[in-house]
Each structure stands twice: as structure tokens, then as C-alpha cells.
Amino acid sequence: MKGRTRIFLGVIVAAYFSGIAALKTDCENATVADIVFLVEGSSSIDKTNFVKVKGFLKSVIKDLNIGRKKGFLLKDHVDKTSLMIAVEKLSYQEGGTETGKAIDFLRTQYFTEEAGSRAGQRVPQIAVVITDGDSTDDVIAPAQRLRQQGVIVFGIGVGEANLQQLESIANRPPERFLSSIRNYAALQKLKDRLLKTVCISVEDQKQALTDRFADIFFMLDGSMAPGMVRGVISNLVELINRLNASASTYRIGLAQYGEDTEVEFSLKTFKNKQKTIETVKGFRLRPKTNKPANLGGALIYANTHLFTSEAGGRAHQGSRQYLVVMSAKDSKRSVYRDAELIKSFGDVILTEKKEIITEDCIGAKVADIVFIVDESGSIGNENFRLMREFLHLIVSSLDVSPKRVRVGIVTYNDVSTPQVFLNSFNDKDELLEYIKILPYSGGGTKTGEALNFTRENDEVSEAAITLRRAGVTIYALGIKDAIESELLEMASHPPDQHVFTRKSFTGLAHLKQTLQKILCRNIIAKAVTRKTETEGVCVKTDEADIFFLMDDSGSITWQDFAEMQKFINKFIETSKLGHNNIHHLGGGTGTGKALSHMGRLFKRAAVTRHHEAPKYLIVLTDGKSSDEVEAPAEELREQGIIIYAIGVKNSSQTQLEEIAGDPKRTIFVRNFDALEFINNDFIRDICSEDACRDIQGDIFFLTDSSESIDEDEFQKMKDFMKFVISKSAIGENKVHVGVMQFSTSYKLEFPLNQYYSKVNISGAIDDMTQLNEGSEEKGVVIYSIGVKNHNPTQLKEISGYSHRVYSEKDFDALKDLEAQVSSKICERECKMETADIIFLVDSSRISQIQYESMRKFMASIVNQTKVGTSLTRFGLISYSDEPRSHFKLNTYDSKRKVLAAIPTVKPKGGGTFTDKALSYSLEYFNARNGGREVPQILIVITGGAANIPSKLKGPADKLREHGVTVISVGVKEADRNQLLTIAGNPGSSFFVDRFEALETLHNDMSSVLCNATTRGCKGKQADLIFLLDQSSSINLEDYDMMKNFTASIFSKEPRDEFDLNRYFKKEDLIGHIQTMEYTGGDTYLGKALDHISNYFDDSRGVPKNLVLISDGGSHDDVEDAADYLRIHNISVFAIGVGDIHDLELLQITGTPEKLLNSVRDELRDVVSLNVPGLVSKITSVSHFKTIKALVA
User: Fold this and answer.
1) Residues 704-742 pLDDT 10s
2) CA dihedral sign of residues 555, 559, 561, 567
3) Band of the pLDDT at 692, cuts 50, 70, 90?
4) Distance between CA 420 and CA 428 in Å, rounded?
5) CA–CA separation, 659 and 282 (whole Å)
6) Do 430 and 171 meet the contact criterion of CB atoms below 8 Å apart?
7) Which of 344-353, 590-599, 963-972 is least confident?
8) Smallest Cα–Cα separation from 503: which of 527, 477, 473, 475?
9) Dist. CA 637–CA 627, nearest whole Å
10) Count of Cβ atoms closer than 10 Å to residue 43 Cβ
11) What start and end residues bound the annotated signal peptide (predicted)?
12) Could you give the count of Cα atoms lying within 13 Å of 147 in the half-sphere of its Cβ?
């Protein structure tokens, strides 16, 4: 290798590291390793420094005990003396610096079995690279190949060495594997630190490489037929042979069960394979006739007796444990819960598989996750190894890369040590390799210091609060003797989503799936904060008087007070209640006295609005009141005031219930920073009654009643159903409820048309008995709720949409879902936006009773909207012989006033001159009468035929020419052809055959009204590009639907389909889109976004918009390309379809408001979106361009 000289020193360590006393503790367990030194021998190192390098090597060798088990690669140096002589004889050579080639030579010539490497015997492999120069060839790829082979690489940079280059050679993190010294004279000072780190790495790597083997116990059914037994014995002998079973490798146990369980031999009985096989071959069943098999009892016995350390089990050493049950027939009773009990302890692993990015985490692509790991002395080496394996499982399931999920690790004992920073690793595999050798130091336990370190001194609570206030979500996992109160103080709210406990370290593996589901779901929910789930609930709650009574005692810090203010502001913003008086008052912890003053404040608020409105008091306190609270709170409730009590920190639950009067209106959080998470609970409760008031629908509960659900869990499901029903408007003409249980069979408890009262339905649910059997659309909206070990993919397939799937770790969490699901049921898919709406009401030939139905219809339309000066405005015109205006669009500014202004007495009758009324109504949409540049709608309600039908079309067309949407509603004697002429299209024309049917017609009209109130884009110009995913994740059927929506496609290499200035006629543009072909392939969104940026014309001076339609699952990074588009003022909107990768789409849009998959997930629903509704968010279209991505 002339010209690129390197010195390779191969050392086989077969005993232990000796030397100074300080090293003995760290190196006493590092008994075996293969270590190779790669020393630069180029001309950049002079002869004097070369002598210092040899001195350093001899010093290291002196502290190593060199074994004689293998030959040394540099030939014949099998002991320390000969190796020292060889080093002394190394000659100085000059040459260039080509470190990359030297590393490859190291990998192919030294770390091989032929050269003496014992990697195949699970011996740790170590390389130490020493250099003072800058390599002239590539080092990244050769170093990566060496590390991928399992070699741990240390780097030592001397003087002017290129540390950035050396960092790419050494293992990560550089804080552990990279050292820098000023000159070669400093090598001797570095020796002890290097040896200490090498020793720790050797021991950790040895633990990672050690085969953990397994404990396997076979349980055979005593009633097996003889022929079956012979087959089982034959297979068992073959398995024991193949596993090479022994006391130090795979341990085998055998038992048979009938009514009782009999152990043939335990896990510790035999020390070698031969004796085990002899006993198995001689095994005979001893069946007990007429005695049914008790498999459930056998499973319980296995859990309590067969796998314990006393019986030879090695779970405490990290051994996997398997129970293999061979049953001949069904047990006399259910065994599901017994099997679940075994699994819950984590001592018996039933299956294992290679970890990949799981279904739950596919969309959780962008997050910074830091693991804080206790490495105190109480953990111990074996348990710390189990924690390493748990970390490895979790990280394996995440999409780790610099632009996606980044992982950090901090270990702590008496001090906190950063092991991995968020930017330490660029490669997931290298991170996983490092986790395998995560160092363990022992020591004391200071969790608070670790939390503070993670943020950037030991009091756990304050440190955790500081971290949470910085926007960090904290999960707390307590094992064995962890203090639960500390876990609750640390974790984010709610505790059931963020606190986990395990009785032993061996139970960590079983926790992985649950924690992973919650972690990835919360990553997506936190990042993609689209509209809140309560946004649509308060549409019908127009008015309320709300007071906040805040504890302002000395225990409240300024930060606590700021959190309370934040809570109130968010409440106001999120609820979007109409005309409200919302106030907040402070005071000491004399809550009773403060409550006594609230009554007159509510009275004063009522005086200012001159009428009654719903009254709510929300009390926030962090301690026990010094005075009595129950009596003053009761006085307020007698005045119709609904009280909610929020307790923080040291508040009294008893007093909270006395204040609220109902436990369901009390909430406790452990600290003030958790207040932001409970806002929705109040909003849902305040608005739910109004939200459900006019809702018609059928709610059908399909409940799992199999043996996997125990009695307590079944009751929690019943409580959940009853709560949802309590919030629904049950009635014969309102909401109907049905319930069915299922397991291997099904049972209809009651159909939708059996009960019409909440009392009867709740009673029927109470009377339900569980089936306890084995486990196995048109217009129907399905919500799926998974608990414990559910399959999220199946739930999504059942519901059709991910936003209708709820996942909970246990049945207790159903309490948190009650209000969410009940409000979802009452929420409308489509909500009316800002609009000017005028009712044009025929009063010519109708009775007072018939008019009353008309009035209720108008009121139901008003109740679906938010009324206000800047929201929706209403006007009313009646007509017969002549039209008459009752109030204009700018007359009233609240829902209450509009409803009060609709006449209760029928206006004057006469002829039905609808044509004259249509002409009359046009001027009432102008600015003088309150009209605005918003969607304008005329709702014509008529009960008969027009006197002059021929004159209807002219004024109706003129209204449409002025942008007014005309909706016709005909009753009884109305002429359907005339209704169609008035409306202009069948979709805007409605007919009922009796006046009473008007009272519920608003449910059928809601989507038409919603689409009509969506803003248009008249008179505006913009450039709009559609970019559509044509990769294989979008199937051909979906692609055809996208073409109908409009157009552009990408996969690998983008290709122009047509330019912005090619088509100016809609017909030509659509024709081209329909002829585009589908090709499939991988998804390269970043490349497509880069390509498309060149096609926007900056000189036009109009808004520039890009609409991306994709599932977001890109094979390349998208963030830089998307940032470039936004920097150049190109607004990017994304419609997520299929299996959506929310966070990647969020990286592209830059804001959740531009991510349009919150309501519908599937492509066919996206296609059915109202196009003007989409365009309203991105202005109108004057030019189009599509980009097509084809597979190269």
C-alpha cells in the first residue's frame, strides 16, 4: 500500500484489562474483544511523533492481557512480549493520506475469520483510528461499511486533523467515540480515558451480542389420543436436538394437564440435551377418565409455578419465555382471561417478530423524542439491558432520520449524561446499534436533574412543569418500585395517556405495543391541530353569561396565573359562542365568600342584555377553601346557574363536588399547565344540549361481548352507552337507538324502533347480560372504539375513516371518550358559513296552523347558523297580492332577536303573486339594506301555485345573475314545475306534501344550504396548479376519480402536461385531463415540488396557489422544497387521500389550515367535495397548469 501507508495493530483480548486501579472497575467485566488500531503513517507525521505513537501503543498493550487462544494477524504475536517487540520494530514510512482505502483494507483483511476475528463467536469488534491529517479520498462510505459489519470505531484526532471527517469515521455519538488532542505528546494522557471508554463499550457490546436463549415449557392435554401423543413426542425430540437444549442455552420443561396439572420435569431439572431427550422419549400420558380438562387452571398454574426463578426460569436474566399448549379438545371453561393474565405479567412471550415501522406510526413522521433513562445502581445490569431492548423496540417502530423523527437519549443517576443528542445520528441503523451498547454506570437517582438537563438543577414536579411549559409532552414509565405520585407529577395530561407502570422489567416488552400506539397517535394529533373537535358543537348555542372565578391566593405564582388566563382566552376563542358576557374574577382561597358574591353579578349581567340567557360559573382553585362552600353554591344553582369546578394541585375533591353539585362537572388536574387540555370538556357540555336539539338520526351500538371482556369492563361499556344517550335528543321523531352484542354469534338487545325515551333505553342497557363467547352502507356513519389489544387497521376498515376511530389502552379510558363521541354524533358534517339569507314566505292561501309550521321551519334554519353582524344575517319578506318586508338583513344582529322578529301571526292573505315578490326581493340584497359581498340566498316558501306562472322565470333568473342562490320550498298545493323554474336546478328545489313536514325539512336541506353559503371567487384572478400523486399507493380507480377532480401527477421524474397559458377554456382543459394516463411507481414528492416551482410566473402579480393531492408517503424529503415554495409566496394546499401521512403533508403546507383531510380521508369523498368550496380558500382560477410525474 505504498503511498497510503497505515499501521494496523490487531490485538485479541482474551482475559481482562489490567493497569491502574481506576480502570479495574470499568474493565473487570470486559474479558474478551478483538481490537485493531489504524494509525496514520503518512508524511504528515514526522519521525519524532511516530516514536510517540509507538510509545502510546505499547502503553495500551501493557494494560491489556494478551491471550494465546488465537494467532495474531500480524503473525505469531500471541503474547504481550512478542507484540511489544513487533510494535517497537515498526518502521517509519512516508506517503499520502488515503484513509478511506485504509479502512476498507482493515475491513476486508483484518476483521475476517481468516485473520483471527471472532465476530462469529459473538466477540466484540473494536477499531481505533488515529490521524493528524485530512484524507484525500472518501471516508464516509468505507467507514459506514465497517460499522455496518458490527465494528465499533473510535477516532483520535491529533493537532490539525479534520475532525469533521474523523467524526464521519467514528461511531456516533462523537461525544463518546471521538477524541481530539493538541499533539502526539498528549496521547499518553488520553490513554486512560480511551481504555475506560473502550472497556465500557466492550462490555456493553458483549451483552448485546450474547444469545439470550429461551425457556420453553410444553403442556400436553392428558386426554390426547395415543397416536397424537407419538407425533408430539417425535416433534419435541427433534426440536430439542435442533435447539441444542441445555442448562446454559435453551431450557425445556414438560407437563400434562387434565383436571389438575402434573409437572414431568421443570426448566432446571436437566443440565444436558441427552437426559432431556431420554425423558421425553419415555413420557407417557396418565389420563383420568371422566374428568374434564381444566386448561384455564393449567394456565394459571403455569403463570405462578412453571416460569419462576425457583423453577429454573431466567426472565430476570432477559431470557425469552414460551408456553406451548397442546390441547386435544375444548376446556371446560373459558381460558382467554387466564392467557391474558400470563401475557400481562410479561414473563411469557407468545410470539416475536422483526421490528419495522408499524401501522400506528406510519403517519407519525415528524417529531423530536428524548428518552430519559434511569441508570442508577438500583437498576442493575440485567434490568438495564432489558431497558435497552425496550428502547430498541420503540425506536425500531419509528421513522427515524434527520428530517423526520429525531431521537435523543439522556441517562441519569447522581448526574445527568447526554448519550444521544437529537442531531447525533443521521442513520437509524447506527442509532439502533448504539442503543444496544448504551452505557450503564449505576449511582443515585435524580430524575428532576435529568428533566432539567433535557430542557437545556432535584425537584421533579417543578422540572417537569418547566419542560411541559416549553411545549414538551412527557410520558412517564414507572417500573417495579417507582413512586406513582412522582410519575403523575412528571407526566403530561391526561394521566391515562401519559403514565404507564410495570411490576417488573421483564414486562417492558409487553408494554411496547400500547405505548407505541399512544405515542404515535399523539405525535400526529399534536402536530396536525386542525379544527378542534368542539368547533361545530356550539353552532346553535347563541347566548350565555359565563363567569370565571379564579383562585388568586398566595399559592398562585405569576406563571400559574398566566396559565389560567390562557385557559380562559382559549375557551373564548374555541367556543366561538355568540353574544356572551364572559368575565373573570380573582380572590383568595375563601371560595365560599366569593361564591356568595356571584349571584348579584349574574343578575347585573342579565340586566345589561334585558333578557334571560343560560348562566355558567367556572371555578378554578388550587387549594382547600378556608370557609364553607356548599350552601353558597346551592344558592347559585337555585338561580339556574350551572357551576363547573376545576381543582388544581392541592384542591379538595369533596369541596369541588360541593361547589359543582355533580361529580360530572368537576375536573382535577395536577398542575396549571394542564388546563389547556380540558377546555373542550366544558365547551362540549355547555353546547351539547343545543347541538343535539334538532338532530334526527339512528344510533346503533355494536358491542364486543366475547370472553375477552371481563365483567367490570362490560359494565364500563354499558356506562359509556348510557352517557352518550343522555346527551342525545331521544324521541319518536328525533334520535332512535338500537343495541346489538356480538362474539362468535350475535344478539339483538333491542331494535331502533323499540324505545323512544332515555329512561327505557338506559333500563334496557342495564338489563343486558354478556354473551361470554369466543372472539371473532349506505348512509351509515360508523365510529369504532378499540380498547386494549385491538387492531387499528381493522377499526379503520370498519369505520372507513381514521377520524372516526378511537384507540384506548384500557376500559377506564372510555370515561374520557363519553363527551367526545356524544358531541360527534350531534355534529353536522357541513356547517353554514357567513351568508345573507332572506326568507320569501307565501301567506296567500294558508291557515294560521299551516303558517306556524312555516315559522318553525324558518326558526330551524336560523338555529343552524351563527347570527351576527359579521356572521350570518337574516331578512324576511312575506307576500300575497303584494310583497311586504318585515325586517332587513341589517336589522338584527343576534339569533335571539331574529327568532323573536319572525311574526307569530300569519301575515295578510290574498293572491299568490310570486313573480312580483321575486322582483321585489332583489333590492333587499343590496348594501343599503344590509347586503354584503358574501354568499346570498333567497329561500322561497310557498303553499300554492303562482297566479302568473309565465312571469316566474324572468325575476328568478335576474336574481341568479346578481349572484343570489334561489332555493324553492313547496308544500301541498305548490306546483313542482314552478318550484323548479324558481330554483333553476332540481338540487335547490324541495317539496313536502303536508305542512307539518316542514318542521324537519331543514335536515334534508342542510347540505344545499352549506354549499350555497361557501364563498365564491367572482372577479378575482390567480394562478393555480394541481399536483396529483400517481404513485402505486393510489390505485387506478382512485386515479380516475382524481382526473374528474382536476389535475397533475407525479411519481419519480416530473414531466410537463400543459402550461398555465395553454388553456383558457374550461372544456379544453377538462378534455386534456381526462386523457391523461396512469403509470404507478414510487412517490417522490420533494422532487416534484422542486420541479413545479419553475412554472409560476412572478411577473403576473396575482396570487399563486398549488394544490397537492396525495397520501403524503414520499420516498424523499419534502421540507426544503416546500420551504422554497412558501418563500416565493406560493400557497400550498394539500388534500390527503388514502392512508394519509399527515405530518409529511403538514411539512408541505406549513400550516394545518391548508391540510384538507380533516373531514374525509378517502379519495371518493375528496372528489365529491364542492369545488367552489375548495376554490374559496385559494381564490379563483384564471390559468391552470398540471405537472405529470411518470416512472422513469
Assistant:
1) 777 667 788 788 888 888 888 887 778 887 888 888 887
2) negative
3) low
4) 13
5) 74
6) yes
7) 344-353
8) 477
9) 19
10) 15
11) 1-22
12) 25
